[in-house]
Design a protein that fits this description.
- The longest helix has 21 residues.
- By secondary structure, this protein is mostly beta strands.
Length: 271
Amino acid sequence: MRQEKNLLLNGSRFFTFTLAWSVYLAATPAAFPRLSEIPDAEVLKPTSFPYPEKLSYHVEWRMVTAGTATVELLHPSADDWDLNLRLESAGMVNRLYRVLDTYKVAINDRFCASSSLLNAEEGKHRRITRLTFEDVRHKVEYDERDLTNKATVKRTLDISPCTHDITGALVALRAMNLEPGRSATLPITDGKKIVSARIEAQSKENVTVSGKSYHTIRYEAFLFDNVLYKRKGRMFIWLTDDSDHIPVQFRFQLGFPIGTISLELEKQQRL
């Protein structure tokens, strides 16, 4: 029991940020001037996305239900989008180490993040993390407050124009037509580190989640092995092979002791 609690304690921050970074992909290619290795004519084809939407996911860890993730993309004005993520533990994981995290991102008219707020309740720990993006100064302000230990961490990083927060790092993917054999490199930051992450389209696959079959393209996002995270691991994403490019499945292969974490789409609602 103690080993499982320590595992969840050490991995909870990683899992929260990784899930928040990857669970929802929504933007237009105009916000990403650094796309590489793919001709613009093939990347910039129109898609039916973006639109207001709610996605609900089932989270599985070690072959058991670990929790749920719900993501909403809202369009409060012509110049702004809001992205809201709620991650909640369930079942055995909830009994061992309760997790209730909410993550909110404000995105401008080019789908670049202007601010984000993570409110994390993990076991007995509570912390609030803010990112504030300043386009004029080309900086991001990081402010983390540990409400349990009464500790504060602040830092400022230099960034390029339209650098994206951790949820926006892959936002171009749904608006691209990135066919198998192609890849793109995108700039991302978590407020503590700035990197360029490669996304690779690998193959077309038929997958079944929640009893429904989808024609998809499998992508791999190279975030591990000292890219954004020091931990060794791999991250795969399955998007529907159509104009919506709905993210129907995510898989994190993290090795011992965490193992594999999977997210499967349960429901999509256009708002």
